[in-house]
What we know:
By secondary structure, this protein is an alpha+beta fold. It is built from nine helices and ten strands. The protein has two domains: about 5-275, no CATH class; about 280-375, Translation factors (Elongation Factor Tu (Ef-tu), domain 3). The strands form two sheets. Strands 1, 2, 3, 5, 6, 7, 9 and 10 form an eight-stranded antiparallel beta sheet that branches. A hairpin with a 4-residue loop joins strand 2 (about 285-290) and strand 3. It is globular, with a radius of gyration of 27 Å.
Amino acid sequence: MFQSDQSFAKNLEDLIGHLNYEKSKGEFLKSIVKKNKRKSVIRSAILDHISHVEKPAFISAKQFTYRSSIISLYGFLENFLESLVHEFISNLNQISVPVELLPKSIRESHLESSIDLLKKVQRNRTYSKDRKNTLIKDVVSNMNSLVQEDSSYQLNESAFSIHTSNFRYDTIHNTFCKLGIPGIPKMALRNPKLKKSLSEKYTIDSDVEQKVLVSLLTAELDDLAQRRNEIAHGSFNGELESIEIVIERIRILKDFGAAISHVLTSHFLGIYFASSTSIELGKPSHVFSGINALGFFATPRPYPMATSEIKVGDMLFSKNDNSNVTLKYGKIISIMSNRVATDCVNSPSDTDFSLQVDFDINSYTKNRDIYVMPSV
């Protein structure tokens, strides 16, 4: 759902590719020498290159590669978290959530966060006077629109991502608290891939108590921020990690980013569901768990009545207030009406129809109320 998640994943894969390239350079040259044991111009040239270029620069090149990878890794993480928060607020603005349905923490922190944004704009020396005045005017206008509970209010999209310290575990927690998601790093640890990547690095069982995983994730995030600071200020004198260990760091952060994005997506769609008009279908008459499809009987209409169109690509929500997971969601990927494939169907429908979705369902889905809304 969030573009920043895709950009973050690509940046990390590119960084892994670069590190693998650095690792393979020397190994490639050595393999050529081993395969060409007889004297030759090529073998002599490679040996000369290794002796006069590779070996003298080995330590400094290793240091530079390590330092630049840590700086890049932290930079990608920081940019991802800032962009994710900005994108979340921007999406809230687009769906026009009624003020009373905004998370309380967003309403309460908007004023203070907007004041921080004003200070940031005023300190920025790259803005022209006109640009600065326009931004200040917009920020103040948005502040007032929420305070006055204007129906057409706008949140200051850049206000919630401002932070004065590096992104460590606690900083990330505090940032997302303002969006109404306290404990988001801990929530991210419910993600199986993140649990697996952490447990594999530290060779522990992935079913350990959550407090152990919290401790490991805290160590990962805090250690990265600390190393980044020391390297950036020229004071790093710690042990250089191998390329393999750095790649492990990267993969953990990639899984962490995906887990954070999933939590935020669920939070956003919960707000969207509560604040927007939906098509209520009631409980499904049939559940086809093998193909993730829900069936509905035709609805008799003794007199003309208004209908709503359900389309492939729409969002489908299944709700059960008595379940551990109140709201499940996904997209409609295909529709069958009277056993014929179609791109859309009306509700109420004159024929039996089924909706296939892109998330897992089971027999218990028959106890959930089904709603359909336009995709966001």
